[in-house]
Amino acid sequence: MSRPPILDPKAVPVIGTDAQLPAVPAERLVAAALRERFAVQAEWQPELAGDGSLFAGREPAAASVLVPLVAHAQGASVLLTRRTEHLRDHAGQISFPGGRAEEIDANAVHTALREAEEEVGLSPDFIDVIGALPVYTTVTGFHVTPVVALVRPGFTLAIDSFEVAEAFEVPLAFLMDPAHHQRHLFEFGGQRRQFLSMPWQGVDAAGQPREYFIWGATAAMLRNLYSFLVR
Q1: What is the pLDDT of residues 28-72, one digit of tens each?
Q2: I want to staple 23 with a disulfide (CB 3.0 to 4.6 A). Which of 40, 174, 177, 196 is the partner?
């Protein structure tokens, strides 16, 4: 099945937020509580399993992303990347570090750690994997395993400028508050599609104010993390 791509997600009308839902309490967003939550193997279904129908001509492929929760003393943050504009898939979008599984990868965790080190230079020495979220299927045909990890502060990044324009952090508390989850309705050619966004007003590497428009698969996986943590 084919469907039109969303070329300008910011221009798609917002039909509401989820401000009626509770935010994840601050005490659940510290390293010890996050580790404890992922240690519990309770039955749970993700709220969002995928983007829906695939673009025509795309073959499914396994992939992993690292969901890096940087354990700052003042509160955890999520390390995200902004992809460069020339890439074939997800150009310019906000993403977790990650990518396609390779033959050298033993499992999804290895894929996520390898890609994070290749893309942004995040050393595994600073990473403590605490679990994973259910596989998420993207419109571009990737079956993505979100590998969740605590990251010890003090790391130094070395960004691959071919794939990544910049890396930045967003407070986990901001992302785990549904009041910041915008719902968009895209309509084209008789088709209707909803998606989430979580716009973050941050500061770029040059110290200038910048809006980071988190949407699509990244926002959906963050929403699944919210659903998991708020239970």
Answers
A1: 999 999 999 999 977 789 999 998 765 556 678 999 999 999 999
A2: 177
User: Could you tell me the residue range of the domain that residue 101 belongs to?
Assistant: 9-230
* Nearest Cα to Cα of residue 226 among 126, 153, 146: 146
Q: Has residue 2 been placed in a domain?
A: no
Task: Enter the tokens of residue 33.
Answer: 């509580």
> Checking DSSP bridges between strand 61-70 and strand 142-151, what pairing results, if any?
parallel
- Output the domain CATH number for residue 34: 3.90.79.10
What pLDDT score does 224 carry? 98
| Residue entry with tokens 């395993």 | 145
Which run of H or of E encompasses 227? helix 216-230
The pLDDT, as a whole number, for residue 88 is 56
**Residue 1 domain-assigned?**
no
pTM higher than 0.85: yes
- Average pLDDT over all residues of the chain: 92
Segments of the chain with pLDDT less than 50: 1
Helix pair 31-39, 216-230: axis angle to 10 deg: 80
Q: For CA atoms 103, 81, 130, 177, give the dihedral sign.
A: negative
Count of beta carbons in the 10 Å neighbourhood of residue 186: 17
Is 4 within a domain?
no
Domains in the chain, number: 1
Per the domain annotation, does 166 fall within a domain?
A: yes
